[in-house]
Structure formats: C-alpha cells, structure tokens
Amino acid sequence: MSRKVPKDNLNYRPARPRRRKYEGNQFSCVEDINTVEESNDEEASASAKKLKKSLDDIIINPSLCYRIIEFIGVFSALADILVCSKCKQKVSFGESGEKGLRFKLSVTCKCGTVLIPSSPFIFNAYEINRRIVFAMRLLGVAREGIRIFCGIMNLGTGISQHAYDRIIQHIHVSVKKLFEVSTKNAIELEKKENEKKEKPILNLTVSGDGSWKKRGFSSLYGVTTLIAYYSGKVIDVIIKSSYCHTCNFAQNNPDNSAYEDHVENCDVNHKGSAGKMEVDAVLEMFKRSEEKYGVRYTNYVGDGDTKTFKAILNAKPYDDIPVIKSECVGHVAKRMGSRLRNIKKTAKLGGKGKLTDVLIKKLTTYYGLAIRRNSESKDMMRKEIMATYYHSISTDKKPQHQFCPTGVDTWCAYNIAQSKNMPYTHKDPLHPDVQTSILPIYEDLSRDDLLERCVGGFTQNANESFNSTIWRLAPKHLHCGSKIIEIAAYLAAGIFNDGYSFILKVMNDLELQIGKECQFFANDYDAHRVQRPNRRSLSSSKEARTARKGKKTGEMDDYHEIEGLLYGPDIAE
C-alpha cells in the first residue's frame, strides 16, 4: 500500500525498507584463502597455494583509528560546549609544533595550556609521517607526491627532505630483513615440494628473468629474480645499478673528502651494458646459493634471449654437477609468431586470404598448444606441431590428417567425423604461397635440440608477473634511485610470496600500529588475488576472452585492408 506524500511538508522523505542486517563474518575473505588447504592442490591457482599462511604473528590494535577532519570547524564547535573540569571555564583549541602531518593540539583555559601530540613518536620519527611515506611507497609515489597530496588536501606542506630520507632508510632496513626471512621460508617449502616429487631435495629447478627501469637496454638500473618452480615463490633478487647520485655530484665538487668516505657505500655495483645486468646477476645468485641457502640450482628455466645460460656453463658454479637448461614454452611459442610476421613482410604475403594477423595468431596458438599438450615427449611434440600444419592445408580432395590425434578427445574435427562415419567438409586451406613459405619455419621450430629443452612444459609466467609487480611500486615513468628500487623489489617479493600479510609484518617491524580497517584491507586484497585467477580459469571466461581478441584482430585486419598504410616514416612524401 503506497503512502500519500503530504503537500505541505517539503522535508518529507518516503520510508525505505530497512537493510537486512548482515549476520555472516565480515572477515570471510580469510576463510576463502584458508579453505585452499582443504581443496585439491592441483586444482588451486598459483596465488591460492602461496597464500596458505596464518596471520597469528601479526599484532593488531583494533582501537586504532585515523580520520581526516576540518580542524577549525570541529574544534570551534567543541570549544562552544566544553569547559575545564578544574576551573570550570571555557577552553580554546589551537595547534602548534607542526612537523609533516604531525602537530600538537593545544587546549587552553585559565589553568594554562596542555599540548596533546596528534601522533606517537617512534624511531626518531612521528608515526603518522612514517605511515604516509610507507603508504605512498606502496602506491609508487615519492616525496613530491606526498607534497602534492598534502597541499591539495590542505594538510600542510608535506615532509622535509631530511625526514623523508631518514624514514626511507628505516623502511629499507625493515623490508630487506623480512625479505630474507620470506626467501628462506620459500627455500624450505621448495625442498618439501622436491621431496614430494621424489627429486633430490637440494637440487632445485628455478626460473630466472631480468627487468629494467627503462626500455631499450639503456637503463641504469635492472632487477633480476630467481623463482622456485614448484612453489612459485621468489627465492633471490639482485638489483644492479650503474649510477650513483653521490658519485656524480662529487665529480663536480673540488673537495673529495666526502666522496672518499662514500666509496664503501656507493650505489654502483655493475660495470658494463644494461643487457649484461641479467647475466651477471643470475651468475652471482647461482654462485652464492650453496653458501646462502645450502641448495643448488641444477635446472635453469630461461627465455633463450640472453647469454645467461652460457655464462653459467662457463663458470661451473657447482664444479662437476651440471646445470640443465630448459626453455620457457611461452617464449618458444612466440617464436612462431615472430617468424610468421617476418615472412609476411619479406615475402609480401599480406592481404585477404593470405597471411593475416588473425591467421598468424591462430597458427601461433596451435604451435604453443602442441608443445604444452605433449610436454613429456619431444617426439609427440614434433608430431603434433606438423599435424597443425598439414591440418591447415588439407582439402576435401586431399585430406592430410595422418599426424592429427585420434580418439574421443582429439581436436581434429575430420577424425571425429571419420570415427562417427559422418561427412566432413574442409574449410578453405592456406594459400599455396603461404604453404610454401611457412613449411621451412615449421620444420626449423620442431628441431630435436629445441623441443628437448621444452620437455617438462616449464614457463616463466611467474617471473613476468613478478616483474610487473615491481614497477607498480616504482613506476618506470618516475625517476628514483637504487634504494627505492630495492625497496620496491623486496616489497614486491614479499607480496608475491606471502600476500599482504608481508606488508602487515613490515608495519609491525616499523612499529606502525595496525587497526581493524588495515587488517580487513589486507585480507580482502589477498582474497581477491585468489578469486581473480579462479574466475579467469573458467572455460567460459577463456572462450570469451579468445573470442574478443580474435574479433578485435579481425577488425584491425579489415581496417588495414580498406584504409591502407596511414602511418609510417616519410609517408607524407
């Protein structure tokens, strides 16, 4: 039954149904992570397996709470209603002693003035200042960003350079210490995984990859990482730097006494090109593995685009114990796409009905699937790779499905139709010029020596994911020094290994109190990290993404066909 609105009541607000009170557990996101332990590990995502960890060792203060208030308005209202308990006179409020975001609240009456600090004092710094610097570093924002934030929010002038540098130093010490703990735990977990797989406990399989602060192999900074294969956790990180701001400043300073004292703490730890950073860093991590962790990295998964493995072989870090090289199947699959795009340009095979971008993507996908689905046998890999070629050139008059798999689960529609005694009509085969041009590519990319390194189906997906995490914390478009990159790398490794519980541990170590909102955010972040890959792994999601990508690529091909070349060097001529 609807209620009639009174015409003379302008403030009338219609009644709304009351929201039903939530009876569940608002922190249920923790349960989502912990239930992974009860589920089948083979079905769980990589993130879910890594985040199976208790938060018992993290100190929570549920009464802690920060709020942003409009100072004059709030305390003027309080001054109108409050009196001193001793002199029974009204009180007035003011502020003094501003240092960064911290200030002292002054309460004045006839009795005198009482100063109340707005934030506790810890480690020669105020808690709120350390908290804002740490929070902004997680956002990839430096002191200038804090100054802009404080200015626009009318919170003050920000934090002085001296205070900021001191806080950064404390953060660096803390994250490095906890990073070492995290990597040692990761090594122990990998040993257990080796034992489960009935492999030598101390001989680990690792994937290595490098990433640079700047594209084009002209970067002054590079980060190289080793990730344990079975646990998927970071076990070692090295940050290479070929630049030191202090050294650069001292070269133009006639007084070199300060420079001489600085030499021992110089940021430069690399001599050579940016491309050599990955080679040197991986070799250094291999050489120190026995001393640091008591293990050996006897199987190295690389992307094949550097001379890293050659340097490992020449150095012989474990004397007579050989190191085996495995290829990342994802990078091997990309070679097919690169080779097809090159032949499209050199042999002029572009255009409708020939080697389009849609076809290149499809053939590259088939090549990658042939390797992944047969990762235990190089012979089966080669057979299915060539099956994808002959399947694509088959016609009704000349079917060539002798290499295609048979059985219930086969992907070959022709063999399925044959098994059911049903007619089958082939789609248009590859253009004859395309067939002739790409056959040598298929033969070259199915060589024994290449496919032998693909046995096992190893990938560097974890490394690529980790690299993106680093540069979210230290964005490439913003300048920063080696210490900030080290902080970003250690934080990224901790989050990658243990989730946001690592951040809470760092906050505990920095004596930043953790309130219930902070705890809830960390739990919620980790829960979403588990749920996101689970949703993406659904077959319906995969098919939808593939369809969208294929449609977009097809549209771009059509546009290029209609419009022709519209952008390129000297095109205006």
UniProtKB/TrEMBL annotation:
Record's compositionally biased regions (Basic and acidic residues): 542-554
Source domain of life: Eukaryota
Residue ranges occupied by any Mutator-like transposase domain in the UniProt entry: 90-412
UniProt region (Disordered), positions on chain: 532-554
A Pfam family annotated for this UniProt entry: Mutator
InterPro entries: Mutator_transp_dom
Protein name: Mutator-like transposase domain-containing protein
Organism from which the protein derives: Cyphomyrmex costatus
